[in-house]
Amino acid sequence: MEEGKPTELKELFVYEHDASRLELFVRIVYAWICIGVVLVVYGFIAGICMLIQWFVILIFGRRHEGLSTFIKGYLEYYVHVLSYYYFMTDDRPGIMPTPVTIHEKKRI
After folding, report:
1. For residue range 27-48, what is the model confidence (pLDDT) as tens digits?
2. Count of C-beta atoms within a 10 Å radius of residue 1
3. Phi then psi for 53, rounded to 5 degrees?
4. Cα–Cα distance between 6 and 94 in angstroms, integer?
5. In angstroms, rounded to a whole number, what is the distance separating the alpha carbons of residues 10 and 2?
6. For residue 78, which of 32, 42, 103 has the smallest C-alpha distance?
7. Helix axis angle, 65-85 relative to 36-60, nearest 10°?
């Protein structure tokens, strides 16, 4: 996390009882087309980066930071839009990727 910047923690996959019928139809265009296109293009480029990263690790025995950062950005964006894409919430995420951080909380 960057110092001095406010952060907001939000659980992404929470049950919401109420749902908007209008949002259901908006979602067809917004999520399935707009976000879907961004995910496909971003995922294709991330896949190329993963292939290059594989060769970098094979040849140099270490990871390239720029490639890792790009792949991480794709994974964060993908997780960020999943709850809207799969009807868990009516809160629309932005079409273009925004900086988010994904954390894992282990239950004991």
Report:
1. 888 888 889 999 999 999 999 9
2. 6
3. -60, -40
4. 19
5. 17
6. 42
7. 150
In this structure, what token pair is assigned to residue 29? 């265009």
C-alpha 98/C-alpha 19 separation (Å) is 25
The whole-angstrom separation of Cα 69 and Cα 65 is 6
pTM over 0.90: no
Taking residues 79-108, report their average pLDDT: 83
Looking from the CA of 30 toward its CB, the CA atoms found within 13 Å total 17
Mean per-residue pLDDT, 6-25: 77
Q: Which two tokens stand for residue 71?
A: 């792949």
- Check: CB of residue 34 under 8 Å from CB of residue 84: no
SS3 state of residue 70:
helix
Structure-token pair, residue 37: 């296109």
Q: In sequence order, what DSSP letters do the residues of 72-83 get, joined into one string?
A: HHHHHHHHHHHH
